[in-house]
Amino acid sequence: MKRNKQIDIRHALALAGTFNFLCSCARACLLPFLTLYFRQLGLTPAMTGIVMGTKHLISVVWSPVASALSKHYNKRRVVINGSLVCSAAVALVLLLIPPTDVNTQTSACNVSDLSSGPTPNVGGNLLMSSIGPSILSPTTQPKANTALVSQSGVTLPAKTLPDTKSAPVVTSKMSLHQPDGDKSHPQLSQENTVNNSAGEPKISGSVIHRTTSSAAAPLRNKRSESKSGSGEQLGEKTTEGEKREGHFDFLGSLKVMDPLHQLFFLILITVSVWESSSAPLEWTADDGLYEYLDYADASDRYSSTRVWGLLGGACGVGGAGLLVSQLSCVIAGQTSRSAVHFYCYAGVAALALPAATYLPLYLNKKRDRANGLLKAMQLVRGSPRALLCAVTTLLVGVAGSAVDNFLLWQMQDLGSTELHMGLSLALALLSQAAFPLLAGRVSKLLSPGRVLAVGAASLGFQCFYYSFLWGPWAALPAQVLSCFSSGALWWAVKVQCEDVATPGAERSVRRIYSALSLHLGSALGSFVGGFVVQRFGLTWLFRGAAVGLLLWCVCLPLLQWKAPRQRRINYSRLLAADASEASDSESEQERDWLDKAMEEDRGNNNNGRRIKH
């Protein structure tokens, strides 16, 4: 970039805001609903937590490395465009993975939607028409029928049960049995084991489970055939099934696994590739934009583009939820309507490509970000208050992962649709974006340390509230607290970064905190949260997160009071002295010598005047 080239700051900020808006909108169309899709495919809570935790770990490791490589080889724009295209393509690959044969779930679909959609099984239509929606409604069903015991480890929409284990068949307290002699009159009977075929509807509590992937139907038929033989023919059937599945099992180790673990490893590999392609996008674009504005002496306006990310996320999650809720459970033949989230993600990512092509970027080879991150870690480690802030953000990330991964599961169990979920999450993002309007008044009432404790406590109260949800819209009032739980907390983190950082290191210190909270803390919370849901249930996950945060918020003010308060850095003096201690001391000595010389000169002049008189 030439020095004489005129830079249009407003045009650059408009492009950057548009790019952030579209990227955040694309992520919000899919990521909040991703765990629901895993649940629909048949993953257990523990498996879902492992997948999401791995996704966060890849992001925290690969994002800085990929961004540094793109800067070293001056390929930032290529990395940004390639990340958009590859992430959208790999996300669509998840739609090609078939669900398991057991406990396949539809996402909060009504019986009328299922009956109106195209179904290949006539017996399923007869079952739905004879039972009627009154029996399948979660509000009219007796409690004895909603208490389901599942050995497959997959949580059912009627109720998420703890202590579940993997098994190839479903064992339920209430199941639907249809005699072979008379298929037109289904009867309800109490039994322990149901052998579900590929096209047969599976009714559990209040939701009908139906396999909706047409591409996976032949594969599931082969799986069911290989499992239906007697004990004498088990070896022969297994061999035939492995030969038939040879085209699908591209890894030899997956051949000996049951369908549930095959599904888990396929999703884990696909999500890992997806995150590897999408992780460099944010850091690379962020560094290029900041260096561009810093080159134009407008780095103070860099933070104005962040609010567009929150607004884009609110539009994405709310719009996707509204769109999917208006569709039938089965669309375009036998495609589940959950696939619309993936198509929206790919479509909005494609819209971001023109903005990425003209996104203002600048390469500052003198700025070494690797050393900046190491220096930022040293600054955080050397300040007790900064360490307390780091521990707080880590715990907030652990508790926030429980909300991000399993809040929609809790809402789905209570009958919420994608409309309720999308509007609830959109309200949380909008309230978070509104906190800067209150930051001036809050800063006059509370110190940044107390605001940090209030933000963590607000998230704790939110988690405690989520454990007592009672209806589809019940989560909506608690989302307003996101103004303080997320908005106030990150405002306090920003103030802490300004206190501890040296000039030019504010962004690096802020990235340390965001990595601790959004990725490392979320990874730990995902791993632990999945096993907690598997063992104790969703309710105790939210209560445990709430208790942990509230206990820390009680101890945090005392620890902050005991921590030594460091002297604030005089940034104006450092900037005037070129951020050097040696030059600062020399400038002070020069000023002292000049002041003394001027005073002596004044004294000599006054003495001369007195002598003349």
From TrEMBL:
Domain Major facilitator superfamily associated: 19-543
Major localization class: membrane
Annotated signal peptide: none
Biased segments, Basic and acidic residues type: 588-603
UniProt protein name: Major facilitator superfamily domain containing 6-like
Skewed-composition ranges (Low complexity): 604-613
Region (Disordered): 157-242, 578-613
A Gene Ontology cellular-component term: membrane
InterPro entries, A to Z: MFS_assoc_dom (IPR024989), MFS_MFSD6 (IPR051717), MFS_trans_sf (IPR036259)
Cell compartments where the protein resides: Membrane
Polar residues bias locations: 186-198
Keywords: Membrane, Transmembrane, Transmembrane helix
Listed Gene3D superfamilies: MFS general substrate transporter like domains
Membrane topology: Multi-pass membrane protein
Transmembrane segment boundaries: 12-34, 78-97, 340-363, 384-407, 419-439, 451-468, 474-493, 513-534, 540-559
Pfam families, per the entry: MFS_1_like
UniProt similarity note: Belongs to the major facilitator superfamily. MFSD6 family.
